[in-house]
Fold this sequence. Notes:
By secondary structure, the chain is mainly alpha-helical. The chain is built from 14 helices and six strands. It has helices at residues 17-20, 38-41, 58-65, 67-71, 118-136, 156-169, 173-182, 186-195, 202-212, 218-230, 240-251, 256-272, 277-294, 298-313; strands spanning 3-4, 25-31, 75-83, 87-95, 143-146, 150-153. The strands form two sheets. Strands 1-5-6 form a three-stranded antiparallel beta sheet. It has a three-stranded mixed beta sheet with strand order 2-4-3, covered by helices on one side. Helix 7 (173-182) crosses helix 8 (186-195) and helix 9 packs antiparallel against helix 10 (218-230). It is globular and about 55 Å long. It starts with a strand and ends with a helix.
Amino acid sequence: MPVKNLLSFFALLLLSHEGIAQQSLQGVEVLGNKLLARETILSGFPLQTNMPLSSDMSSFKAWCDKLEVRLHVPFARCSIVGFGGGKIYAVVDVVEAGNDSKLKIQEKMPYRDIELNSDLYKLSRQLTSVWIEKLKKNVGVNSFVSRGVFLDYDDQELSLLANQLFLLASMQKQTIFDVLLYSKSESQRTEAAHLLNWCGDPQAAMIKAMIAFRDESSSVRNNLVQFISFYFTYIPSADIHHLIGDLAWQLNLPSHTDRNKALGVLFLLLKQHPEIAKQVRELAEDEITYLAKNSVLPNVGGVAKKILEQLNKDAPG
């Protein structure tokens, strides 16, 4: 029987300027500030909540480009994120002085010139494009693992593409693994991480995903975590505690897409393996508590609250 995934935790759409032109801002997420006041960070913020956004986001970009200098911080980034139903938010991430460890990513692997088969790459991109268009139009699409080996959809168009992708990717499994681990191209590694869902060997793919987890690219990391979220039952029991450490590391990165993916998988793992609650408390409870208190987004603050409920439920009496 197909296994449904809690897709709502991961269904984030980075909206194009054209996509947000007709929408209004629901709120502003500010994270990473333990010393700086929210009001200080948002001084002069050019966008207004509940007002239509202009497709010209130059003022927003200009405001964000000056943040690091104005706040005297080593890192500040802004983004616009959206959810189904036309709800969009601005996200402002800062890293305050003294917290530079949040910016450390592993050193590059010995990357080389290696690429996916062009037909496979194009088909993978086509599926993603179709999925994004449906999400923009608020078309409900559920994802599930079909026959235990590949990601499928309850949408006819997407299911056809998924089945085609499975047939092609399963014949090129080793190339997918090699590109994921060794390609110097970020876009190629990103697509290889996406293609793990259709390589036909989730057990072997999970091992590769664990090896590649701390890739320097956020897009690679996020595709890996999405794969893990669908196939988490294939995580070797001996590696679960190692994965918790990786997720705690990812949770602390100053990136919305990193933190929301890490939270989603932590929640799934806690429900499946309540015995990991102690390790989650030790490695991530402080950050989860901070996000539950400060995040206004359902797939960050909302999930953080659910994790805390689970941790409290599993706490020793």
